[in-house]
Write a structure and sequence with these properties.
The protein has about 325 residues and is of the alpha/beta class. Helices cover about 25% and strands about 30% of the residues. It folds into two domains: about 160 residues, Medium-chain alcohol dehydrogenases, catalytic domain (Quinone Oxidoreductase, Chain A, domain 1), CATH 3.90.180.10; about 140 residues, Quinone Oxidoreductase, Chain A, domain 1 (Alpha-Beta Complex), CATH 3.90.180.10. The mean pLDDT is about 95.
Length: about 325
């Protein structure tokens, strides 16, 4: 089968399309013939440490959708022929292994490309908004970098939960494109200059929950924009800024909660623990079309390099999806 691998150095990433053996499912795993897989910017960001030591090669891709071909010992929830999606290692391949605990049935209303856009992005958003962020109807949600995959998913989930959503982006065109998803306020900026405008839009209340997909360059401004008992989620640092000052006075007086969102150090059990609740609480909205994955574009399997460049340039709105050819 064909499979994309990547080597990450201290300064660059190198892609390699290889012919490798089809993996075999072990206990608790499913072998899936992949039809589509979605790109996630964190996988390509230098310094994230998702690929181990610099200079090593690793099969890439973190989420996708396809058809079950075979199952390992102990798998009872899925069988051959079923349409599934999930987070999985090596998703940019014609076949990949999914853990039963991470696998989700694909609703009949979704295409392969839509299904591939859901598992990682929406599970991360669910973690931030619901499990840790405790977002309630009527609260204000601020999303830095709202046009990113996680940003758009958080916007959609936030609206379903009844929140009022403010988004920042350096592009007025991108903000305009997100109006149809319910974006209440769009702030066109890439700088740390938005706190005063957030306060104005919320009548001095501030943001109850902030999703920081950008990094340290906006962290201090996020703290200034938070409401009393506000929560700040840090999910990425595409700006490469890993350090920022913390206003301890604001942290103390406003009783703030700061938390990170990452699966890097979690066990398999920890990663999959929220999946049943996600399936029960979010998948009905997706199946009914109340949440519809926003796809920037679908590209052919041979165009991963170009798709990666588009993502790294920040030209996309929503998800970039790789269409995977059926193995002969």
């Amino acid at each position: 089968m064909q499979s994309y691998w990547m080597q990450m150095t201290d300064t660059d990433t190198v892609l390699d399309l290889r012919d490798v053996p089809v993996p075999q499912p072990e206990a608790g795993q499913l072998l899936v013939r992949m039809h589509a897989a979605a790109l996630n910017r964190g996988e390509f960001v230098l310094g994230h440490g998702l690929h181990g030591k610099a200079g090593t090669w690793k099969a890439i891709g973190g989420e996708g959708a396809g058809e079950v071909v075979a199952v390992g010992e102990g798998v009872t929830a899925f069988k051959a022929g079923e349409r599934v999606m999930g987070r999985c290692a090596g998703a940019f391949s014609q076949y990949a292994l999914m853990e039963q605990a991470e696998t989700i049935a694909v609703p009949s209303t979704l295409s392969w490309e839509q299904a591939a856009s859901i598992p990682m992005t929406f599970l991360v958003s669910y973690d931030m908004l619901v499990l840790q962020g405790r977002l309630s109807a009527g609260e204000w949600l601020l999303i830095n970098g709202v046009s990113s995959g996680v940003g758009v998913a958080s916007l959609q989930l936030g609206k379903v939960l009844g929140a009022k959503v403010i988004g920042t982006s350096g592009s007025t065109d991108k903000l305009a494109l997100l109006r149809h998803l319910g974006l209440d306020v769009g702030l066109c900026t890439r700088a740390s200059d938005f706190a005063a405008r957030v306060m104005k839009e919320t009548d001095g209340h501030g943001a109850d929950l902030i999703i920081n997909t950008v990094g340290g360059s906006v962290f201090a401004e996020d703290v200034r924009a938070l409401a009393f008992e506000g929560r700040l989620a840090t999910v990425g640092y595409v700006d490469g800024v890993l350090h920022s000052d913390i206003d301890l006075g604001a942290l103390h007086a406003k009783r703030l909660t700061l938390f990170g969102v990452s699966n890097k150090l979690r066990s398999k059990e920890q990663r999959s623990a929220s999946v049943p609740r996600f399936v029960a609480e979010v998948m009905p909205h997706i199946a009914a079309g109340r949440i519809k994955p926003e796809i920037d574009r679908v590209v052919d399997f041979s165009q991963l390099k170009e798709a990666k460049a588009r993502m790294e340039a920040g030209a996309h709105v929503g998800k970039i999806v790789l269409r995977i050819p059926v193995a002969s």
